[in-house]
Amino acid sequence: MNEKQLAGEKAASYVQDGMVVGLGTGSTVYWTILKIAEMVQNGLSITGVPTSKETEKLALEHGIPLIALEEVSSIDLTIDGADELNDELTLIKGGGGALLREKIIAYHSTHMIVVADSSKVVSDLGTFPLPVEVVPFGYQKTLDVLQDMGCEPSIRSKNDSLFITDNGNYIVDCAFRSIPYPSTLHERINQIPGVVDNGLFIGYAEKAIIGNGSTITFLEK
Ligand SMILES: O=C(CO)[C@H](O)[C@H](O)COP(=O)(O)O
C-alpha cells in the first residue's frame, strides 16, 4: 500500500455514524472516499459535502449520499489533502484547483483532518507554488500585483487552455520559494481586488495523518 492510500484509508476510521462529512479533493483523499463508500455499503449512515465537482462525481459513483452546504447547519468533520503542511498545520492547498470550495467547507467544519504522503511535510512553506484563485476580469493586472509581492506568478493552464475552476475563475500559481509569514501573506494577497482567495489554510486543520513508508504518523495541534 502506498503512503497516500495508507493515510487516506486511516482517516476514514474517524468517520462516525450520523456525521455530515466534508469530502476533500485529490489523490490522497480519493482513498478516504473509497473507504467511506465501503463503510456506507456496510451500513454506515453519513452524508457527504463535496469540495469539488470531481469529488461529487467520485462520491456519487461509489454510492455516498451527498447534500449541499446550504442544507446543513454545520459539517462535523472534513477530510482533505494538502500540497504542503508544516508542524503548525498551516497548509498550502489548491494543487487540484479546488481551494475555494475546500476553504469554504473547512470554515464551516467543526473538525478538519489532513491526509498526505510524507513528501508534503515541510519545515518552511513555499517550495510548492501558492495557488491563488482570481476572477477572469483583468487577471493580467492581478498577476502583475502578485508579482510585485515577490513571487514568480504563472497562470495555470490545462490541455492548452486556461484552467477554469469549478467557480468559473482562473488559478495563478505563485512561486514564492519561501513563506516565512503565512498570515501576513494571506492577508496581503486577499486584499488585492480580483483575488478570490489563496491556498494558505491557517488554523483549520487540527490533525494530519501522514503516510510514512509503510507506517502512519500523526501531527496534532
Ligand atoms: O488542495 C487540493 C486540491 O485543490 C488537494 O487536496 C491537494 O492538491 C493535494 O492533492 P493530492 O492528495 O492529490 O496530492
UniProtKB/TrEMBL annotation:
- Sites where the protein binds substrate: 25-28, 80-83, 93-96, 120
**Top-rank taxon:** Bacteria
Q: Which GO terms describe its cellular component?
A: cytosol
Q: Please, one GO biological process term? A: D-ribose metabolic process
According to the record, the signal peptide region is none
From the UniProt record, give the pathway where this protein acts.
Answer: Carbohydrate degradation; pentose phosphate pathway; D-ribose 5-phosphate from D-ribulose 5-phosphate (non-oxidative stage): step 1/1
Keywords of this protein's UniProt record, alphabetized? Isomerase
Looking up Pfam families in the UniProt record yields: Rib_5-P_isom_A
Q: Which residues form the active site?
A: 102
EC number(s) from the headed UniProt entry: 5.3.1.6
The entry's family comment says:
Belongs to the ribose 5-phosphate isomerase family.
Q: What does this protein do?
A: Catalyzes the reversible conversion of ribose-5-phosphate to ribulose 5-phosphate.
List the protein's name.
Answer: Ribose-5-phosphate isomerase A
Species assigned in the record:
Guptibacillus hwajinpoensis
- Give the encoding gene's name: rpiA
